[in-house]
Amino acid sequence: MFQTNTSLDNSITTSKQLNQALIRNILIQNSDAINILNSVFQNNTSLDGGALQFNNANQIAINNCSFNYNIAKGSGGAIFLREAKKLIIDNKSNVSFNFAEIGGGVRVISSQFDPEQTILNKTRISQNTALIYGKDIGIFPFKIILNFQHQKFRQLKQAENQKERKSLLFNKKYFDKIISDRILGEENLFIESFRSGNFLPLNIQFVDQYDQLVQFSVQKLKDELYPSSVQQELNSFQIEITADDLFHSQAIGQTFVNYNQYNEDQKTFKFTSLQINAHPLSIQSFLIKAITNSFLQSALINLKLNIQFRQCQRGEIFKVINQNIKICEVCQSGFYSLIDSQQTQNETLTCIKCPAQATSCEADTIILKDGYWRSNNYSDEILECDDFTSTITCRENNPDSKQGCIKGYIGPLCQECDYEVFTLLVLICVT
């Protein structure tokens, strides 16, 4: 039930008057119209809302008031708003030099109203500090930045000259109707030429409306040193990746991250073992769902990730996962395959054990020992070189070698001279 009217006039609220730092504020709730006039709020400390906290208010008017040097241990350095429809601040008022973990000046939490439209005259809220996010006004993270490592990707419908950017920023979009789970952004992202069965190293950062990266201490969170409201919010930060079509694609392994996978130095949530499977030469969709707030209702950022899967390549073999999904499995260390998978889809192919004439093998690479020769890098017909000279001429791994031969020699088994001269009727290769 709403009260008709609440007013504060000619008030000065400061902890210094009482010679102690009070961990409390003024709470006003269930009011229709609230007017705060000619008042000063300074040097106050509380958990949420350093000076004032409003719960379930229709309209709050602040006229000729100052909110300075207030501290909230949790959110809203000066003012905390929960389910408040409007906060109107006149040009004679200011909210400055306040401090909080979230929302240095004002914190807004609402499931009924658009929090971006709650505060009128936001310019009067400035020069505040927030440690986690929302330096002046804290709502919740509005955007996410995605960073992919070693992947070609593009945002659908974006300019061609931007198609290989290394990170993309997704902004929120509000809908006209209030829905149970607010969707902050829906965008399409396209990754090209991805190997089925490969891991997708994915780093995600949350960003507020000031383009400030969300940052917090994992150890402090685990030790429960944040106020309970901040603990609850940070614990709710999570990102999940799922396949849109479970019959034709898979996201397996690390499909979910939360604060345990948060890197404080990079301010990033990290996917390090996320494996993506589908049929080669298909295009599949995956959904990235980021939850950023758990007060009353969740705030969601939904992104659709479209992946174009390439054909298996030389050094990879087909491995059947099920009737609709195959992966391109790379031959691991000690094994190799030189068959071009683009010309055959033989599912019975296997990786071949490294031959004795090689020092190592992996994928489509064979590293020969000195003294052995082959016609090209894609041949596993390996021959032992004769003692053509006192010099070992077959050295495929020599940086100056040519067709598997050291400088000055060429041809099968390196028995021909690339450049030659005769000295005393003896053929000498010029090296």
From TrEMBL:
Superkingdom: Eukaryota
Keyword Signal attached: yes
Protein's cellular compartments: Cell envelope; Cell outer membrane; Secreted
Record's keyword terms, sorted: Cell outer membrane, Membrane, Secreted, Signal, Transmembrane
Predominant location: other
SUPFAM superfamilies, per the entry: Pectin lyase-like
InterPro entries for this protein: Pectin_lyase_fold/virulence, POMP_repeat
One GO CC annotation: extracellular region
Record protein name field: Transmembrane protein
